[in-house]
Amino acid sequence: MFESLSHLALQQYWWIIISVLGGALVFLMFVQGGQTLIYQIGKDKDERTLLINSLGRKWEFTFTTLVVFGGAFFASFPLFYSTSFGGAYWAWMILLFAFIIQAVSYQFRSQPGNVFGPRTYETFLFINGLIGTFLLGVVVASFFTGSQFSLTDMNEMRWHSAFRGLELLLNVQNLSLGIAVFFLARTLGLLYFLNSIEDETIDKRIRKHLWYNTVPFLVFFLTFIIWLMLNEGYAVMPETGEIFMQDNKYFLNLIQMPVVLVLFLTAIALVLYGIFISLFKKSNSGIWFTGAGSFLTVFSLFLLAGFNNTAFYPSNVDLQSSLTIIKASSSHFTLTVMSYVSLMVPFVAAYIWYTWRAIDKKKIDKDEMTSGEAHFY
Amino acid sequence: MLENIDFTLVNWSRGQFALTAMFHWLFVPLTLGLAYILAYMETMYVKTGDPEWKRITKFWMKLFGINFAIGVATGIILEFEFGTNWSNYSWFVGDIFGAPLAIEGIMAFFLESTFIAVMFFGWDKVSKRFHLTATWLTAIGASLSAVWILVANAWMQNPVGTFFNPETARNEMTSFWDVFLSETAVNKFVHTITSGFVFAAIFVIGVSSWYLIKNREHLLAKRSIVIASVFGLISSFVLIGTGDSSAKEIVKTQPMKFAAMEALYEGQNNAPLVAFGILGGEENYKNMNADSQSDFLFKIEIPSMLSWLAYGDPDSYVAGMKDLIMGNKEQGILSYKEKIIRGYEAQQSLRALKAAQKEEPNGEKAEALKAKFRDPAFIENNVQYFGYGSFYDPDPIQIEKNAFTMVPPISMTFYAFHIMVMLGGLFLVIFAVFLFLVMRNQLHNKKWLLWAGVWTIPLAYIAQQSGWIVAEVGRQPWVIQDLMPTMKAVTQIDVVSVMTTFFLFAVIFIGLFIAEVRIMVKQIKVGPKKKEDPNNV
């Protein structure tokens, strides 16, 4: 089946999978967003325990998606992996540290003898929520703003900034997407709490905080998008593979790929609708709309970065070193093998869905926390 | 040419990866094995409806959870470090290595992380059978995640099923099944996973012994010891079997590692196996040259055993390190010097191709050079020694000197191998003795033996780490056998950055380790819940 597809078709298929994983990852970052709100929404120990337990049943899922996102990127576009991870060393390392401390925090926080005390692990969760979302946004923004690398003819990477990835923080566009992702994650976190926790006082607090997070999210996100539409971008000459700067490249991509345009506009509408019904209709199902919208937003942003003859990981010091999905990809054979594996994804999604429904039949509340059995973290 | 390499950077990068991998490997074996042990315990609970089984299962599950989190936390570091610190490597092998890693994520990690949640939170929410299925699926998920990463690692030790593509300057996969089912991959997987089973069995026996010493939880301890010792015993036999088949395969694919494991300098027929040995003069092992001789302060040998172990024939010839470096015509062994020259020729052809392509991408010269890389004779004689070319020097005497640097750290490989084997034997005895005595109900009054059970836990950690050292240190200087030396795989970055992250990791790991051990010890001291709710079994 897949072996008859052209190399380009497989590359595009895998770019779509990467985009799906990227979209899923950002949606699932409600866990990270929620972690930064534990002290604002939870006013006493019991409330905080409730919040942490509600997130604690999902954190591994986000974590696993991050690992798979990394693994799939490595497998399908290894040149990106070697260039970006090796080059933007500090950006990835800091992101990594933020996730290491998360993985133990849920499990260790309420265990007796945990040495550092629950406060430390709660701080770890906050750091993970802040750095994990912000830095990921910054790195993804560099798909549009470019990085300082060049490649030798043996595809060995040379990074031209001594800051090794931290220089990405000096770019205003990168920062604006980073901040937008941070506030989006918090918004999603709030909507998730609304949906999964049964508690009136917490409910009120959440709706108030929704305002404080939605507004900055929209401001920074729109700043980034407007800049993206107005600015020049990294285009590829399809015949020669030569990279050149084209005015309004990403705006043109949106117009020339009407499907992506529709997806993108639907995405924005869904994000806003989810927030709207949570703020004004007292609905608890905002997460589904804003969540789906966030997924689609990121998904379409990835398509803008990689499709329609665009370099998805551009170099701003040596234009021709910029990575396209053609140049960065694995061989036809490997992509074919992996495509067969990808057929398992719907099956995986189905059992996750089934299992979570079984576990989440009932909302989490304070009674459950004191019943002994279910309180875990 | 070696003078262009920044070995400080290479060593710090290696140090960082070793630190992470070894720390990761402190936790993974227990996860792999304990998952099955508690799945079996829960099966007993579902079959018998005995609440004591539920209590036992939940107790071990609690320890499993504490251990699992830290394995997850350190696993992601390894994935990132392939890119951050081994950038050239990740491009060179991405086409092969990436696929197992992606499969691992899709197949194994989601299975594990979804069903582990049911395991911990689902007791009152899903049916008994669903819960039991989830526990088994978690165990299978853990094993599956080991399959793929070990397939990837096996490919690095024995790169099969691929060809070198000069266009992209990397190795590309030609047969998924050759990669997946190579002898190395199968041996490595079965050997590693059963070592995890043995480890978990030792852990369970150790903790249970402590309860018997303290005169607590007799039923839990005895039932656990029965299950663990049977599980450990069966696993040990498979472990020893795959250890043997690994040896037979390593002697073919990585003869230098094999020779280093035994500190064998000169090849010989009827080669004896060093059952126990203490190496002398450190200098002798560090600066090897044509006159170096093996130097044991003390050794006990089993005659002809090494030949038998390697080839199943006591008369067969086992090559020593010096045969491999200097060549041995009689035995048809090519010298490293020759391999270096041949590998260098392959590298030069690649450089010529890149230069020709710059002038005229599809010109006659470029096409001819591309065709050369498809020529079976050139592949056989040159491309398969590609990595050796990195040790080339215009001065032939220097090449010979460089060849002598291409040995792994001998004493480290030798000791790690012997410690691993001896401890593996000891564990087998422990399982047999514990099973025998517990079945005869004579275990609880043998305090010395119970203490021995407790103190075997740290030994099991040592055995695991030794195994890792044999596999990974023993294959130096290669990151991919014969194709890519470690020094070429590294990311070009300032060494201060790597040193900084190394120490950051070290601090975090020490902190996590202290917390983990204290929580674990505390939970063992607290013990299982006093009683299961009789209305809820």
Number of strands of chain B: 8
Shape, principal axes of CA atoms of chain B? globular
Q: Please tell me what the overall shape of chain A is.
A: globular
What class would the helix/strand composition of chain B place it in? mainly alpha
**What is the rounded Rg of chain B?**
26 Å
One letter per element, helices H and strands E, the order of chain B comes to HHHHEEHHHHEEHEHEHHHHHHHEEHH
- Element string of chain A (H = helix, E = strand): HHHHHHHHEEHHEEHHHHHHH
Mean pLDDT of chain B: 90
Sheet of most strands of chain A? 2 strands, antiparallel
Strand arrangement in the largest pleated sheet of chain A: 1-2
Descriptive notes:
The complex is a heterodimer of chains A (377) and B (537). Chain A has 17 helices and 4 strands. By secondary structure, chain A is mostly helical. Helix content of chain A is 70%, strand content 4%. Chain B has a two-stranded antiparallel sheet. Chain B has a two-stranded antiparallel sheet with strand order 3-6. A two-stranded antiparallel ribbon of chain B has the order 4-5. In chain B, a hairpin with a 3-residue loop joins strand 7 and strand 8 (484-485). The longest helix of chain B is centred in the N-terminal third of the chain and has 42 residues, at 7-48. The chains are: A mainly alpha (377), B mainly alpha (537). At the A-B interface, helix 5, helix 6, helix 7, strand 2 and helix 15 of A face helix 2, helix 3, strand 2, helix 12 and helix 19 of B.
Short note summarizing the structure:
The complex is a heterodimer of chains A (377) and B (537). Chain A has 377 residues and is mainly α.
In terms of topology, how is this protein built?
The complex is a heterodimer of chains A (377) and B (537).
Chain A: H1 7-28, H2 30-35, H3 38-41, H4 45-56, H5 59-76, H6 78-87, H7 89-109, H8 117-145, E1 149-151, E2 157-159, H9 172-196, H10 200-230, E3 233-236, E4 243-246, H11 249-256, H12 258-280, H13 286-306, H14 325-328, H15 332-342, H16 345-359, H17 366-370
Antiparallel strand pairs in A: 1-2, 3-4
Helix pairs in contact in A: 1-5, 1-13, 1-15, 5-6, 6-7, 7-8, 8-9, 9-10, 9-13, 12-13
Chain B: H1 7-48, H2 51-85, H3 87-121, H4 128-157, E1 162-165, E2 170-173, H5 176-180, H6 183-213, H7 218-253, H8 255-261, E3 268-269, E4 273-279, H9 282-286, E5 296-302, H10 305-311, E6 317-318, H11 321-326, H12 336-359, H13 364-372, H14 376-381, H15 396-404, H16 410-439, H17 447-473, E7 478-480, E8 484-485, H18 486-489, H19 495-526
Antiparallel strand pairs in B: 1-2, 3-6, 4-5, 7-8
